Amino acid sequence: MIQLSFKPYILYKKHVFRIAGGARTSTPAVLVRFKYGNLRGYGEASMPPMYGESIKTATAFLNQVDLSSFKDPLNAEEILDYIDKISPGNPAIKAALDIALHDLIGKILNIPTHAYFGLSNKELTTSKTIGIDTPENITKRINEAEKFKVLKIKLGGGNDEAIISTVRKATDKPLYIDANQGWKDRSAALDKIEWLKEQNVVFIEQPLPRKAFDDMQWLATHSPLPIVGDEGIQRHSDLQSASNYYHAINIKLMKSTGLREAYKMATTAKMMGLKVMLGCMSETSCAIAAACQLGALADWIDLDGNLGIKNDPYKAHAVKNGIIYTNNLPGIGLHPPKWKKIRSHEE
């Protein structure tokens, strides 16, 4: 029988993280573990407040989970269907259970999770995210990210030109731009995008509010740079009309309910002619290790969430010079953690 245990946890950030929607210094999380015989599978729910989940909601959800009727962990479809139907929403804690199950399955089969999905193992070039901040702090963050080949810059706070000017004084590296729904007027957004195209920008992520459908469709038609859907793309069901508004989608395990749905989203997006970005929240190396297993499906990688926290209880894939070197350990690639030494705590 599969046994479930979990620990509330708080991720403390190395720096204040600011985006168009606000700022924070920590992120609530819940770490989960599946035990099956002498094998363990690990997962994680990271829950930024803007998405509506919390340690309280995650704990309430986990207390409803009863896996006693499932004798075989390899029956992933049935198990994950059951979990998804316990209650609507709750994507992050569902992702934690999905990740733990896939980690366990990989260990049962003695293969890495990417092989379970029929994917190759590859080195992943990840961007390094820099939030909205003062010119001095932005310059400092850029210098700290010297070895990364691509930077992801947060805009949408009203001082976009000043931020880009600061960035360009410090580096000429390619930039991913994330406005986090911060631009409200489509014509002004297009003007900014046309200017950003001359600043060695690769794409624009979620420039307009996710429900501004007419404006997004207009912008996607006129933009000289690819528009990537993030807040506007949560789960597989959102892909039906995605090509009307976006040229690419940002898949995050915490939004999609985990690896099973993320894999379906990525393969469907590619069939639709959409590019795929793999992104993350502030996360430990557990969730990042899981997302890396789908790296072969991605056009762009933004998996640096574990690098920005001070208290990562896990160790997984090595990151050198902005490249994630995915290992071939069974499951998601975690080195065996000391579960008993991870201290549960809440804010």
Automatic annotation (TrEMBL):
Pfam families in the record: MR_MLE_C, MR_MLE_N
Mandelate racemase/muconate lactonizing enzyme C-terminal domain residues: 135-226
Cofactor(s) the record lists: Mg(2+)
Biological source species: Zhouia spongiae
Cofactor note: Binds 1 Mg(2+) ion per subunit.
SUPFAM superfamilies for this protein: Enolase C-terminal domain-like (SSF51604), Enolase N-terminal domain-like (SSF54826)
SMART domains assigned: MR_MLE
Gene3D superfamilies assigned to the protein according to its UniProt record, in alphabetical order: Enolase-like C-terminal domain (3.20.20.120), Enolase-like, N-terminal domain (3.30.390.10)
Keywords, ordered alphabetically: Isomerase, Magnesium, Metal-binding
Protein name: Dipeptide epimerase
Enzyme kind, highest EC tier: isomerase
InterPro entries the UniProt entry points to: DgoD-like, Dipeptide_epimerase, Enolase-like_C_sf, Enolase-like_N, Enolase_C-like, Mandelate_racemase_C, Mandelate_racemase_N_dom
Entry similarity comment: Belongs to the mandelate racemase/muconate lactonizing enzyme family.
Enzyme Commission number(s) from the entry: 5.1.1.-
